[in-house]
């Protein structure tokens, strides 16, 4: 259903909590939540769109879920650094003959993921050429560490660019503009 919210979780919630959870869902998530609550005979009538609610939201509270989402995205972007050791561990699973070197033929599905993550690389062969520092046709563990580092940087950059684009495309209230400016400055350091 998205955002970790289920109808069961909302069954004993207040009207405000149900409406808040509903408002934070994507349109598809809103429909699923409404259906699930309806099947349970619970508060589906509370899943009104913001225009249908009796209390109008202030501009800042209407934008708060988006700001929270962007802040969570920033946190996730920072946490992508935690992928680095995992990517580096992949080397052992690819080094089939345990000689401390990986040939193109040994680059398996793990490398496919790296090909998609690293900007400017379209194939395993290109990955090998770009990161095989000494040109011997194989990647050492140290060279693979550089592949891993570049993949994490690329992932961070793509996430950050998407968040900046989304945030800049928003018509922030005067109250939220400085909040967005501060968050954007942090995000820009990841690009």
UniProtKB/TrEMBL annotation:
* Basic and acidic residues: compositionally biased ranges: 29-42
Q: Has the keyword Signal been applied to this entry?
A: no
**Name of the molecule in the record:** EF-hand domain-containing protein
Query: What are the leading ranks of the lineage?
Result: Eukaryota, Sar, Alveolata, Dinophyceae, Suessiales
Give positions of region: Disordered.
Answer: 1-64
Listed A to Z, the keywords are: Calcium
* Keyword field contains Calcium: yes
One Pfam family name from the record? EF-hand_5
| Stored SMART domains | EFh (SM00054)
Q: Which is one GO molecular function term here?
A: calcium ion binding
Q: Which InterPro entries match?
A: EF-hand-dom_pair, EF_Hand_1_Ca_BS, EF_hand_dom
Q: Which residues form the EF-hand domain?
A: 119-154
């Amino acid at each position: 259903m998205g955002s970790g919210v289920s109808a069961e979780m909302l069954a004993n919630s207040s009207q405000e909590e149900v409406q808040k959870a509903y408002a934070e869902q994507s349109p598809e998530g809103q429909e699923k939540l409404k259906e699930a609550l309806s099947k349970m005979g619970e508060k589906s009538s509370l899943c009104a769109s913001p225009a249908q609610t009796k209390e109008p939201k202030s501009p800042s509270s209407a934008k708060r879920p988006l700001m929270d989402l962007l802040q969570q995205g920033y946190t996730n972007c920072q946490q992508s650094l935690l992928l680095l050791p995992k990517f580096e561990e992949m080397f052992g699973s690819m080094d089939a003959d345990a000689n401390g070197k990986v040939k193109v033929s040994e680059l398996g599905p793990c490398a496919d993921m790296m090909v998609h993550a690293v900007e400017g690389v379209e194939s395993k062969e290109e990955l090998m050429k770009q990161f095989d520092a000494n040109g011997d046709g194989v990647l050492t563990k140290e060279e693979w560490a550089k592949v891993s580092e570049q993949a994490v940087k690329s992932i961070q950059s793509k996430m950050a660019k998407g968040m900046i684009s989304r945030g800049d495309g928003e018509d922030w209230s005067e109250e939220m503009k400085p909040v967005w400016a501060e968050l954007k400055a942090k995000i820009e350091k990841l690009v």
